[in-house]
Design brief:
76 residues, mainly beta, two-stranded antiparallel sheet
């Protein structure tokens, strides 16, 4: 989901910049929570106000409230 720098082909090892915007499902949580992830990190935990994101089928992440506000745009 990142743009390759001109000397790098997408999907290859190399230099990338600027994350491409992609739609994700997001839910702001009203209590502390955790999610098990399939990509090897085990379990992620979040606090009240953090956002649970779903990037794809069984592909989840957690973003803090302050980072979410700076880096995501809510669309409906």
């Amino acid at each position: 989901t990142y743009e390759p720098i001109t000397s790098t082909n997408a999907g290859e090892n190399g230099s990338y910049f600027k994350k491409k915007p992609i739609p994700v499902y997001a839910l702001q949580m009203d209590e502390a929570f955790y999610v098990d992830v399939s990509w090897g990190a085990g379990r992620l935990s979040g606090d009240v106000g953090d956002w649970l994101l779903q990037y794809g089928l069984d592909d989840y992440g957690i973003v803090s409230k302050s980072i979410f506000e700076k880096t995501y745009e809510i669309i409906e």
